[in-house]
């Protein structure tokens, strides 16, 4: 990571009350569907996603899946692909574990850890065909903008993990953050924006409860779809 930037941390762990079902899922389903964090810098083996998702067509990462509604639906509608979701909040992990079990989503795995550390220490380069980041925390107060995930240091960590020809798909309902995302990505050599600006909804991304709340507040939904050149 660039030494000119502070350590990236775009989240705050809050004491969110979990339901009994979410707690039970963490106790009974975690070992089946979650991948433990491993640190290759200490000699532990990096995550072999090709082995984990053997026989799948593409491998897609979702960073910060929240309660996992969109994650479960996309994985269910695309069983030919493998999906890895990273989330720090245990309530969301528990809810998604229940959905994996209920729908028998054998093509979906979870890592309950900081996405930055996972990418830096666990994931080999050129692992993903695509990356989804839907509605990252906008940190709307100006003094908190430094906590936003989509900044140059994080993109420098993320891009090597995407295969050539792969994509990065981001969505936000915060207009000023959307402009920042476009500005950050437009200055990176080798990235291609087919829309030359904001993209249209491709039609396969589900609308979530969080998104509907933004729409109820008349927040425009901005989509950014970027390709990594060969």
Spatial ordering of strands, largest sheet? 3-2-1-4-5-7-6
> Mind telling me the CATH superfamily name?
Vaccinia Virus protein VP39
CATH topology: Rossmann fold
The backbone outline, from C-alpha atoms, is globular
- The whole-number mean of residue pLDDT values reads 92
- The structural domain count equals 1
Quantity of strands, as a count: 7
Number of helices: 9
Please give the CATH architecture: 3-Layer(aba) Sandwich
Biggest sheet layout = 7 strands, mixed
Distance between the termini: 23 Å
Kindly provide the radius of gyration, computed on alpha-carbon positions and rounded to a whole number of angstroms: 17 Å
DSSP helix fraction: 25-40%
SS class: alpha/beta
Q: Give the ordered list of helices and strands.
A: HHHEHEHEHEHEHEHE
How would you describe the overall organization of this protein?
The chain is of the alpha/beta class. It has a single domain, classed as Rossmann fold (3-Layer(aba) Sandwich). The protein is 32% helix and 18% strand. The protein has nine helices and seven strands; from the N terminus they run H-H-H-E-H-E-H-E-H-E-H-E-H-E-H-E. It has helices at residues 20-28, 30-33, 49-52, 69-77, 90-103, 115-121, 152-158, 175-186, 209-216, and strands at 59-63, 82-86, 108-111, 128-134, 162-172, 191-192, 222-228. A seven-stranded mixed β-sheet has the order 3-2-1-4-5-7-6, with helices on both faces. Helix 1 crosses helix 5 (90-103) and helix 4 runs parallel beside helix 5. The chain is globular. The two termini are 23 Å apart.
Topology:
Blueprint: H1 20-28, H2 30-33, H3 49-52, E1 59-63, H4 69-77, E2 82-86, H5 90-103, E3 108-111, H6 115-121, E4 128-134, H7 152-158, E5 162-172, H8 175-186, E6 191-192, H9 209-216, E7 222-228
Helix pairs in contact: 1-5, 4-5
